[in-house]
Each structure stands twice: as structure tokens, then as C-alpha cells.
Design goal:
The chain is mainly α. The protein is built from 28 helices and ten strands. The protein has a two-stranded antiparallel sheet with strand order 1-2. A hairpin with a 5-residue loop joins strand 9 and strand 10. The longest helix has 31 residues.
């Protein structure tokens, strides 16, 4: 019994904090239809502000707590309500880009200001308390648990028993109908976002004493609340709280079982329980129980304007000539940067094809790239396929290894596509997000991937491979096979090799886009229901496009690893899950051209930082903030452009007053036109608008 209490008590305490974060996430999604991927970043921001006041300024902890809650919970909630209003009619892809952009902005801002090292906030709640057996139940943990249960009960009664609570649930579906019931939709939305952000802020400040103040750790822990929200189907508050407590107990209990093994993979499973729960919910729960909020009011995703074949051919030719000329016009020291730019361009091409050709989104693309990099590197250095006819010595040649690395990533693309088959929209993004984190935390250090050294050698064609730490020894029997007799240790030669792969991938993307499959994918992005009604198999298309995207990303990962001749799985490295988020933010503001936009995104991500003024240390430090801000701006631009700036045009009435026509969205629809029916002398019925009705 005492042993069980050793895990039950801290499990309930951790589950209480998970529950607070999950309640805030469910509350904002349930009342706005916008899934806030920046929820964890809000918690981290509140923790940093609390640290600034409590530790740096030596304020009493209640003062620091309340001030942080006001700034992040109240002010931040009001600002996010405005953002959610502008995103109300946006397609799912656009809302994901905006909230991921906000996550990148806040995460980069906190890192730039406070650094990446952990800060110690210190315990501010009582740590003493009564003992039950061998376990001390602190008064602080009891306070947190009581607050969590009280908040959950209050919200449950609020939604079920009060007029405002019912209005919060209704506002996302039809704000105009709600307005007719004498409820202010704007006030309802503001209250829900303020409450949701206050819950996120509270969870971040309560986690700070236990985990330290670290933006990456706090973001990851609060993201773990997604699992609890999934148990509640992103709607049911009691189930959400119950799921949070269950996850907290399992996270504390399972390490006692797995730490007895020598497997790092098994040892990593307890901290990944929230993401396993998240994926299991998406795989097993009936799709009818996971419905998107407010999606019926979203506007369609408009395709970019198509150019004539002649203009397209001329543009692609000019682009190809520019890329071929790069090594001859840049400094020799910068060619490596441009080689990485080409590799990132391949990965961005795969992500752009998924986003803008099918209307689906992936937040795990660097995971696919990591799989391709590891597979191709091991094939060249360990020779797993020495029975194939394309080998040099006991190793696979570079082109075959890169191709096989892409193919090995395909089954993982199919696995990620399973939620896309069963579900749609925002849940696909959440599932890929969880998959990317689970892949990094559970598999990166496993022997099948980077192993405990978190590093896989990735030699270029024709270069000798040595065991790390024995560079003066003879090359071992795992030497990369020569390719065309060219020395690819030369940076210029490797750039052209990577560029050749980029051209092949770009050709694949263009062929798919112009094929029948591409046409069907764009139709599925516009209306999957209508496409299914015409007999098309949308499930097969979703699997195909995810597999093709994973294949191209795997190839890009292999080319990228060849730049440094190694692939690292270390936290914060090239293949970290946060890079996938930055990719979405960067691609979000670079347009939706199938070839040009991914290359612009790769240029902004990799190359811009070596040129003035972007090479200044301050600019490099805050570039994530700029990426996030630009992603948000581009996401809300249609609403600003047609609503707040142009669409809200003045309409002069006959009586001289001025009115405005609002931006047509699900949260801010145009005013209802009053229509009356009158009967003329000839007994015919005439419909009259509000102005004519007022005269008659």
C-alpha cells in the first residue's frame, strides 16, 4: 500500500496541473473552434514572468503570480480573442499556421531574453504536510488538487446551468443567432479566451518549481495535456480531468517498472504516455465522436492563380539557371550553406505538396527527414543490403542509399495517414504533432535510429568512412561507393549533386500536380464530401499523398545529412521536433507556389542569416520571433485585407447615416437584411429591403 501511495500522491499532483492546462485548451477550442497550438508557450511565458518578479525582482510570490496572470491570462487572452476572431472563417491549414507561428514567436522570444539554460523558480507553495505511511502529502499539492477539482466543477456547472455558459458553446456555430438571443458574441468569446489563457498561465507557474523555468521543457509538458484533452474528446470537461489524473499516475508509476531494464527505448516510454494516449484516441475512438468545432462556417481554401505554360516554363528555367550559377557568384565559404539550403528546399517541397495540394498539414516532417537520414547513413556505413547488385564493397552506393532512405520513410507516412483517413482537419495536425514528439523522445536514442551516441555518420560518395575517434586509422570496410569518379568532398561538387536531387524532386512534384492525382487532391482540399460523392476514394488519396510527402522528406533528410557528413538526433539539433513547427511557420508566409514558395522558405530559413543585416547576432537571436510574426500576419491578412481595411466599406444611406459591412466570417457575419412583404394595389406581393420598408 505504501509503495502504491509513493506513486499515487505525486501522480495526482501532476495530474492536477495537466488538468488545468487541458481545461484551458478544451475551453478555448470548444468556444472558438480554433485549436491553440501555442497553449504551452503561453504557460512558459507566464512562468518566465513569474520568475522575473519572484526571483529577479524579489517580489512576494502572490504579487508575482497575480501580475503574471494579469499579463498573460487577461491581456494575452484578450489579444488572442482578436486573433481567433480574424481566423474564424479561415481554413484549418491557415489557423494551424497562425497558432504554430505564435508558438514559435513566444518560444523564440523567451529563449532570446532569458537564454536556453533552466532557471530555478524555487518552491512558493508549502512543501510540508501530513504523512500517510512513508509518504508526505504536501499542503501545496493538496491546494493545487483542490483548485483543479473546484475549477473543473465550476466550469461544468457554468456550461450546463448558466446562460453565459450555454452561450459560450453556441457562439462558435452561429454568433448571429446568439446575438438575436440578446447575448453579445464578442463578450462571450473574450471571456472564454481569458479563462483559457488563465488556466494555461496557472499551469505554467505551478510547474516551474518542479521542472525549472525552461521554455522547451514547459512547452513539452503542457503539450502533454493534449493527451488528457483527447480523453475528453476535446469537449467533455469531467473526462478531461479524469484523463489528466490517469496520465499523471501512469507517468509516475511506470518508471518503477521500466528503469529495471537497460533499454533506453523502454525507459523513455513513461514520459511519452500522454502522446501514446493521444495517438490511441485518434486510432480507436469512433470518428463521429471527434467532430471539428465551427468548421462548417470556414471559407474555402482558394488556390493560387495559375500562370500560362509559357510563363511557367520561363520562370522555372530562370530559377534553374540562378541555382546553377550560385557556386560561381557566392564565396567558397558559403557554398556549404547553400548546399544545406538545397536540402531544406527538398523537405519544404514535400511539406508544400501536402499543405497546398491536399489541404492537410504535417507537424512531424523533420521526423520523416530524420528517418531518411538515419536509414541512408547506416546503409552506406554498415552495408545492410550487401546482397543487392548496386553495392560497392559491403555498402550501398550513395544514390541507392538516399532512395532507400526515402522508401523506408514511406511506411511511417502511412502510419501518420491513419488519423487522416478516420478524421479530418485539425485532428490530423494534432496527431502529427504527437507523432513527431513521440518519435524524437522514444525512438531517436533507440538502436534502430541514432542510438545512445545520437549521431550517425553519413559519408558523401567516394569518401572514406572511419570509426569516430580513429581518423588516422585505415578506412573500415564500410566505405561509400564512388559516384561517376567525382570527388564530392569538394563543396561545389556536392552542391551540384544536391541540386540534381532537388531538380528530380521538383519534377516529381510538378508531374503529380499536373496529373489526375493532383487534380483530385486539389478537389479533395476544396470539398472531400463532394469528391466522395463522385465516386473517388479519398482515403486512398490521403494515404498516397502522405506517403509521397514522407518519401520526399526522407530523401531531403539524407541530402541534408550529407552536408555535414553526419546526422544528429540530439535535442535542439537539426531534426528536433521544434524545427517542424518552424517549417510550417516559414512556409506559411512564403506563398503557395508549388516550387518557388518552398525554395523561398528554405532561403529564409537557411541562407538569409549569413547576409547583412540578418547576420547580426541580435537578428539571428530573434529570427524565430520574426518567422512567427510573419506567419501570423499572413494567416490573418485575408481578414485584415477584406474586412478591417477594405471590406468594411462605408455605405451611405438615404438618411445620411453611415453603416459598415463586416468581413463575412463565422464570428463576424454581415448585418441581417430586414425584409418585409407588402401587397400592392394589383394584389401582387413585393419584397422590400430595410430602407424601402422604412419608407412604406
Amino acid at each position: 500500500m505504501n509503495e502504491f501511495l509513493n506513486y499515487l500522491v505525486p501522480g495526482i499532483a501532476d495530474g492536477s496541473v495537466y488538468a488545468l492546462a487541458a481545461l484551458g485548451l478544451v475551453l478555448t477550442y470548444k468556444t472558438s473552434g480554433v485549436f491553440n497550438f501555442a497553449h504551452g508557450a503561453l504557460a512558459a511565458t507566464a512562468a518566465y514572468l513569474f520568475y522575473e518578479g519572484y526571483v529577479e525582482q524579489n517580489w512576494p510570490w502572490p504579487v508575482a503570480f497575480v501580475l503574471s496572470l494579469l499579463l498573460v491570462g487577461v491581456v494575452g487572452g484578450l489579444l488572442l480573442e482578436r486573433l481567433a476572431t480574424l481566423l474564424a472563417a479561415a481554413p484549418t491549414v491557415t489557423t494551424v499556421v497562425a497558432t504554430v507561428g505564435l508558438l514559435v514567436l513566444l518560444q523564440s522570444l523567451m529563449t532570446a531574453i532569458y537564454g536556453s539554460a533552466d532557471k530555478k523558480a524555487g518552491d512558493f507553495l508549502p512543501t510540508n504536510g501530513p504523512r500517510v505511511g512513508d509518504v508526505t502529502i504536501s499542503y501545496g499539492d493538496m491546494m493545487v488538487t483542490a483548485f483543479c477539482l473546484g475549477a473543473a466543477l465550476a466550469l461544468f456547472l457554468f456550461f450546463g446551468r448558466t446562460r453565459m455558459g450555454k452561450a459560450m458553446t453556441a457562439v462558435v456555430d452561429d454568433p448571429n443567432l446568439l446575438a438575436l438571443q440578446k447575448s453579445n458574441p464578442s463578450a462571450v468569446r473574450r471571456l472564454s479566451w481569458v479563462l483559457g489563457c488563465c488556466f494555461a498561465s496557472t499551469s505554467g507557474m505551478l510547474l516551474a518549481p518542479k521542472l525549472g523555468v525552461s521554455v522547451n521543457v514547459l512547452v513539452l509538458i503542457v503539450i502533454a495535456a493534449y493527451g488528457a484533452a483527447a480523453v475528453g474528446l476535446f469537449e467533455n470537461l469531467p473526462l478531461t480531468v479524469g484523463g489528466a489524473f490517469a496520465i499523471g499516475i501512469m507517468v509516475n508509476y511506470f518508471p518503477s517498472l521500466t528503469q529495471k531494464t537497460d533499454s533506453l527505448f523502454l525507459q523513455s516510454l513513461p514520459r511519452n504516455i500522454p502522446f501514446l494516449v493521444l495517438l490511441l484516441v485518434f486510432l480507436l475512438v469512433p470518428a463521429r465522436l471527434l467532430t471539428e468545432r465551427g468548421v462548417r462556417n470556414a471559407r474555402r481554401f482558394e488556390p493560387p492563380r495559375a500562370f500560362s505554360p509559357r510563363v511557367t516554363a520561363a520562370g522555372l528555367t530562370a530559377l534553374a539557371v540562378t541555382l546553377l550559377a550560385v557556386p560561381h557568384v557566392v564565396r567558397d565559404a558559403d557554398i556549404t550553406v547553400y548546399s544545406a539550403f538545397v536540402a531544406y528546399g527538398i523537405i519544404f517541397l514535400s511539406l508544400g505538396m501536402l499543405l497546398y495540394m491536399s489541404g492537410m498539414i504535417s507537424l512531424a516532417h523533420m521526423g520523416f527527414a530524420a528517418i531518411g537520414a538515419v536509414a541512408s547513413g547506416k546503409l552506406m556505413t554498415f552495408g545492410f543490403f550487401d546482397w543487392l547488385p548496386f553495392v560497392g564493397g559491403n555498402t550501398v552506393s550513395w544514390p541507392v542509399a538516399i532512395l532507400l532512405g526515402g522508401l523506408i520513410a514511406v511506411p511511417f507516412g502511412a502510419i501518420v495517414a491513419i488519423p487522416a483517413i478516420r478524421l479530418a482537419g485539425i485532428y490530423v495536425a494534432v496527431a502529427t504533432f504527437g507523432f513527431g514528439i513521440l518519435l524524437q523522445q522514444a525512438f531517436y536514442l533507440a538502436p534502430v535510429m541514432f542510438d545512445t551516441g545520437a549521431l550517425v555518420q553519413h559519408p558523401r560518395p567516394g569518401t572514406d568512412f572511419y570509426v569516430p575517434g580513429t581518423a588516422t586509422a585505415e578506412p573500415i570496410e564500410g566505405t561509400a561507393a564512388p559516384l561517376f569518379g567525382v570527388d564530392f568532398n569538394n563543396e561545389r561538387n556536392y552542391y551540384y549533386l544536391a541540386l540534381a536531387v532537388l531538380f528530380l524532386v521538383a519534377a516529381i512534384v510538378l508531374v503529380v500536380r499536373r496529373s489526375r492525382l493532383g487534380t483530385l487532391l486539389r478537389a479533395m482540399s476544396d470539398s472531400p464530401v463532394a469528391l466522395s460523392a463522385h465516386g473517388a476514394n479519398t482515403n486512398a488519396m490521403r494515404v498516397i499523398v502522405f506517403c509521397l510527402s514522407a518519401f520526399i522528406a526522407g530523401i531531403g533528410g539524407g541530402v541534408l545529412a550529407g552536408v555535414t557528413q553526419s546526422a544528429s538526433g540530439s535535442s535542439g539539433g537539426t531534426f528536433d521536433y521544434t524545427t517542424s513547427l518552424i517549417f510550417v511557420a516559414v512556409l506559411g508566409f512564403c506563398g503557395r507556389r508549388p516550387i518557388l514558395s518552398p525554395l523561398l522558405a528554405a532561403f529564409a530559413f537557411q541562407v538569409v542569416k549569413i547576409y547583412p543585416p540578418f547576420d547580426h547576432p541580435t537578428m539571428i537571436e530573434y529570427r524565430g520571433v520574426m518567422f512567427g510574426a510573419l506567419a501570423i500576419l499572413v494567416a490573418i491578412w485575408p481578414a485584415l485585407n477584406f474586412g478591417a481595411l477594405r471590406g468594411r466599406r462605408a455605405v451611405e444611406r438615404e438618411d445620411g447615416e453611415l453603416g459598415t459591412l463586416g468581413f463575412p466570417s463565422r464570428l463576424n457575419a454581415p448585418p441581417i437584411q430586414v425584409v418585409t412583404v407588402r401587397q400592392d394595389d394589383d394584389r401582387s406581393l413585393v419584397l422590400a429591403g430595410s430602407q424601402e420598408a422604412s419608407r412604406s
